[in-house]
Amino acid sequence: MEAGGPLPRVLSVQSHVVHGYVGNKCAVFPLQVLGLEVDPVHSVQFSNHTGYPSFAGDRFNGEQLRALAAGLEANGLLTHTHLLTGYIGSLSLLQAIADLCAMLRRHSPHLTYVCDPVLGDEGRLYVAREMVEAYAATIVPLASVLVPNQFEAEQLTGGKPIDSLAAAACACDELHARGPHTVVITSMTLPPTGPSGPAPEAGPSQAQAQGEAQAQAQGSGEYITLLASTTLPQRGGGGGGGTTRLVMRIERIRAYFTGTGDLFAALLLAWMQHHPGDLATAVDKAVGGLQAVLADTVRHCGPAALAAERTAEVCALRELRLIQCQGKLQDPPLRYRCEPLEL
Q: In Gene Ontology terms, what is a biological process of this protein (predicted)?
């Protein structure tokens, strides 16, 4: 960002909760503390996230989004440098997102669209099948940066299984060919073979200091894999006429938290803005910030981090501690780093 120039401005269309942290509640604050202006639009407004025993609220539709966009345009306020989308609960709203992206690009031709295609996870769809088809046909071609999890990447590439780094790279190539210059597939569970990133060990003294529950949650001995792929030229010559691929292995935290994907997408957007042409650094810092928040939240949870029953009390304790971790969002500890992937 140029010193003294206008700040980047993000239009963020995601879910909203009154209490807790998912969707825009996970995106707006981190983007702001990292120096970006944010205009949030709430795709839903719920009392709390849907992992609680109950929730109440309303959903936004496409007609309402179009009305908001028209109001912004009438006042010359569509000056956004970025569009960020997360959970979109209806086909009507998804179609309006496509129209919104086109409208924004009329005003800002170089708009960056970061899309977290919230479709499902671990073999289960959260949305109707028609939403998968609409994302694949309409939204993927518009996106600049796509941030699916393993299951979502499979769904967007015809259901082909991603069971290796080679398969993940092929999925990225297919998605690149359809539009996005950058694809980051998160949270992949792959066989323990092939290149891996650094995996620091948690020694006994650390585990004792953190307490038994935290040690069990964070010292799982299991890993998830992230693959980042870009066709943009990279610092040091990567991506010049080709594709740069980066891989990272991250120790799995056994506890279940809501909003982690929303937070990661926002952090990735911010750090890509701060480090253009350096996807490795952007991913390192986005993962570092997310992992710092998770570690602090696990410490705060105590035994609730591993509780099997998701009572309202347990869910409340597991809410991400963004405010308490704002310093680490701005200056994230880099426990994990990307490594180049050559296939």
A: pyridoxal 5'-phosphate salvage
42 SS3 class = strand
pLDDT score recorded for residue 64: 98
Which helix or strand (DSSP H or E) is residue 285 part of?
helix 279-301
Q: Is 126 exposed, middle or buried (0-12, 13-18, 19+ CB in 10 A)?
A: middle
Q: Is residue 259 a contact partner of residue 26, using CB atoms and an 8 Å limit?
A: yes
Q: Could you give phi then psi for residue 216, rounded to 5 degrees? A: -65, -40
Give residue 216's pLDDT.
53
Dihedral of the alpha carbons of 39, 61, 132, 320, in degrees to the nearest 10: 50
Q: For all residues of the chain together, what is the average pLDDT?
A: 91
User: How many degrees, rounded to 5, is the angle at CA 179 between CA 173 and CA 183?
Assistant: 50
Q: Coil, strand or helix: which one is 228?
A: strand
* 254 token code pair: 């056994």
Over 70: is that where the pLDDT of 292 sits?
Answer: yes
Domain over 9-190+222-340 is classified CATH 3.40.1190.20: yes
pLDDT at 299 over 80: yes
Cα-atom radius of gyration of the chain, to the nearest Å? 19
Assess whether 262 carries a catalytic annotation: yes
User: Could you give the CA distance from residue 263 to residue 266 in angstroms, rounded to a whole number?
Assistant: 5
H helices of 108-248, in order, are: 129-134, 150-156, 165-178, 204-210, 212-218
159 vs 117: CA distance, rounded Å: 15
pLDDT digits (tens, 9 = 90+) for 175-201: 999 999 999 999 999 986 544 444 333
Q: For residue 318, what is the DSSP state?
A: T
Q: What is the pLDDT of residues 120-173, one digit of tens each?
A: 999 999 999 999 999 999 999 999 999 999 999 999 999 999 999 999 999 999
Domain ranges of the chain: 9-190+222-340
Q: Which two structure tokens, joined as six digits, stand for 89? A: 């609960």
